[in-house]
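Consider today's protein:

***
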Amino acid sequence: MAVSNSFLPTVSCSPISSSSSLVKTHHHGSLIMSQLSSFRGLVIKCSAASDTGASPLPDPMNFRHNHMSSMAPFGMQMNDKPSYKWQRVLLKVSGEALAGDHTQNIDPKITMAIAREVASVTRLGIEVAIVVGGGNIFRGSSWAGCSGLDRSSADYIGMLATVMNAMFLQATMESIGIPTRVQTAFRMSEVAEPYIRRRAVRHLEKGRVVIFAAGIGNPFFTTDTAAALRCAEINAEVVLKATNVDGVYDDDPRRNPNARLHDTLTYQEVTSKDLSVMDMTAITLCQENNIPVVVFNLTKSGNIAKAIKGERVGTLIGGTWNSTVTTA
């Protein structure tokens, strides 16, 4: 049978102000408890600090919430208000670009240059995610059929190459103080996080750089497609494709010195002219999700920072510089 609280004795407790009060209150409380031991129930009412005029103690949960909400991105003050067009970008770095002059698989000078320019924009509050290729180490499409190696297995080996590049780039970035996380499309929990969209977005919101490796985790898809897909998933505003050329030309500039650099292109022009910018799957995915693509030269100093901040550099696909890109 339920017992109403109105029939139960109530003991009020007040804050302790001194050691003598502690002894006195403890003794008095023990006496009361012994006298009321015959009761089947007991209601103890402790008055809050505000009832006695003292300042209330802080709620630890509210304190943590307020502290977390006041956190600013890496290197950024709370009163900073970035005015750049793009606040979240996805940078696509090909494996060949990481090789530099191709004297070795990975050029440390290239990775350090990328890290320093990314650091300069993350301090402005711009969120940066990166997709890396693996062509500098292993390109699955080139090795398929060699020594009985089927295309699927070759592509998986290529995905492992992208993880190697991602780990190298992560180490370079963290060496100069950029908090960086690597997420892989398939589980390699000993060396990297698995790709979880919400976790990746939360990393970006905290000012961390997120490097996506292993493509999309499936063979027959390029890392360009992975860049377009990850860009759409994390709600990034643009794909920045870093290459070894200044942008998209109407012809191969290495063979034709008179090749003309395009300032802007539409998605339809890229597909109809069969321009070797990205594979058709990636271009189609960008077109369907209204994601602009900027193709620019990685080797020129300052280009990465300019592209991330939305300054005019390289070739813009799927937009116009005036409406889509704002010069900082």
